[in-house]
Amino acid sequence: MTTAIFTIVYYAFTVYQFMVIAYVLMSWVPQMRETPIGQLLERLVEPFLAPFRRFIPPLGFIDISPIVALIALNFAHRGLNAILQQLLL
To answer: In this record, what's one Pfam family (predicted)?
Structure first.
């Protein structure tokens, strides 16, 4: 049972990380954001990226907020794993 919970959490965070990466890569090809998949990714990822973009200004043409967001997502994943480990084991 506990292994299943850790596996589900792992895959959920991994899928979301790939969604963020795909959304960032889609910014290089603006036409991709107009597709149904692009619009779906925008609805799912932009609310997560918005707070980081508010506090981290772009450096010229480079937006480093997605990198910081992915690092924060990694910390959240590790923190949730630690909490679950304390509760379940």
So the answer is: CCB3_YggT
Tell me how many domains the chain contains: 1
pLDDT in tens, 24-79: 999 888 899 899 999 999 999 999 999 999 999 888 888 899 999 999 999 999 99
Q: Using CA atoms, how far apart are residues 13 and 10, in angstroms rounded to an integer?
A: 5
User: What secondary structure does DSSP assign to 37-81, as a single string?
Assistant: HHHHHHHHHHHHHHHHHHHS--BTTB--HHHHHHHHHHHHHHHHH
In Å, what is the CA distance from 64 to each residue of 7, 41, 70, 72, 81? 30, 19, 10, 13, 26
Structural domain of 84? 1-88
